[in-house]
Amino acid sequence: MAAPPVQPVPTAAAAAAAVNGDAFRLGFVGAGNLAESIARGVAASGVLPASAIRTAPHRRPERGEAFASFGACLLQTNAHVVDDSDVIVISVKPQIVKQVLLQLRPRLSEKKLLVSIAAGIKMQDLQDWSGQRRIIRVMPNTPSAVGQAASVMCLGEMATQDDENRVRKLFSAIGKVWTAEEKYFDAVTGLSGSGPAYIFLAIEAMADGGVAAGLPRDLALGLASQTVLGAATMVSQTGKHPGQLKDQVTSPAGTTIAGIQELEKGAFRGTLISAVVAAAKRCRELS
């Protein structure tokens, strides 16, 4: 038997949202890890109170428990989520988006904003399957789990400026947000969607290099991960070109240029460029 809906006590954040005139209910059709990261970020940031968030876990009770743990409402079915939400996030796996939207179509209307985070599913397909034109498509990435997502969104033909602002607030709760035309989304997937895996490989390789040079494993991994974090923060916060920052570290005949020379021998930059292009190409093929 499905668990009864959880109804958390309204919080001070709920009252604040009502005062600000931007109180709305946010529903997730699909209760996976990415959906949870978004929901947690939204609640933690105060953009919405947890009591305004709802989902309907089906086959995996632990996913419902994850949402309930921070105060979100659990409803019995996706249909109930749609009925009880103003903004509906489609967060199921891409291969079942069509099936889910066709099932929910009778309950959808232009009074509700549909937001899709399903990778590779085009706006035209979302519109055809849902019968809606008030849609925003968003491509976040896995660092949403730690509040450092890179998200890109594009607007459907009936999405309003208020819709864009609302979705920007939601996804700003888990990182940074850009707006771009949908024609760029395959490239976005190749860069920011797949990019965390490239960086994980780089961190692992740098740590292995530290071990090879004589460092203990824990120290090497800690130094590698913090170095990547620090370098990324410098690019983001200083506004300087990465090449300029690289030059500032690279003394004549020093240690850094010796390391860079080895990276250039191994076509480090060219390989990363090729990885982004290959992932973007694969995304086009899958969609």
UniProtKB/TrEMBL annotation:
Record's keyword terms, sorted: Amino-acid biosynthesis, Cytoplasm, NADP, Oxidoreductase, Proline biosynthesis
Entry GO CC: cytoplasm
Cross-referenced Pfam families: F420_oxidored, P5CR_dimer
Protein's UniProt name: Pyrroline-5-carboxylate reductase
MF terms (GO), sorted A to Z: pyrroline-5-carboxylate reductase activity
Domain of life: Eukaryota
Keyword field contains Ligase: no
Binding site for NADPH: 78
Location within or outside the cell: Cytoplasm
GO biological process per UniProt: L-proline biosynthetic process
Native source organism of the sequence: Zea mays (Maize)
Predominant cellular place of this UniProt entry's protein: cytoplasm
Pathway where this protein functions: Amino-acid biosynthesis; L-proline biosynthesis; L-proline from L-glutamate 5-semialdehyde: step 1/1
NCBIfam families: proC (TIGR00112)
Top-level class of the enzyme under EC nomenclature: oxidoreductase
Transmembrane segments: none
Domain Pyrroline-5-carboxylate reductase dimerisation per the UniProt entry, residue ranges: 182-286
Domain Pyrroline-5-carboxylate reductase catalytic N-terminal positions: 25-120
Catalysis performed (reactions): L-proline + NADP(+) = (S)-1-pyrroline-5-carboxylate + NADPH + 2 H(+); L-proline + NAD(+) = (S)-1-pyrroline-5-carboxylate + NADH + 2 H(+)
Signal peptide location: none
EC nos: 1.5.1.2
Family per similarity comment: Belongs to the pyrroline-5-carboxylate reductase family.
